[in-house]
Amino acid sequence: MESSGAASDGSCYYSRLGIRRSASSAEIRAAYRKLALKWHPDKFAKNPTAAVEAKRRFQRIQEAYSVLSDEGKRSLYDAGVFDPFEDDDQDFSDFMKEMISMMDSVRSETPDSIEDLQRMLAEIIDGGTSSGARRGPSDGAKRTRGSSWGRR
């Protein structure tokens, strides 16, 4: 996988398009259109040597745009986990998009207090009951001779 925002050839997608990391989707689109017009291979059809370089640059511009114009891919790229060669790993990509989305939404929330965390832990231990009472043998578990609740 690529890390630290590096594209498949070592250059940064933002640099390829000549934009800042904080660029809006409109700025990304405008930069892409400008560079695509400049380096479109059809403009260099009469000069075969220049056409080869134009085609290479045009493909690199398209690659950068395809990632940065897609919010999910862009989030993965910014997080350093986007790999353009692993298109078949859609499940991992979906998982990472979901995780990044969840992390972004959690950042804006206020953290839970110790009391809230203790209450959640008690609910988990109690199996989701709201009474807060500890589970005993009547809850379906058998107590064996010499055993003690909470020790194993």
Automatic annotation (TrEMBL):
It comes from the Eukaryota. InterPro entries: DnaJ_domain, DnaJ_domain_CS, J_dom_sf. GO terms for biological process: response to cyclopentenone. Pfam families: DnaJ (PF00226). One of its GO terms (cellular component) is endoplasmic reticulum. Residues 125-152 are annotated as: Disordered. PANTHER family: PUTATIVE, EXPRESSED-RELATED. This is DnaJ homolog subfamily B member 3. It comes from Dioscorea cayennensis subsp. rotundata.
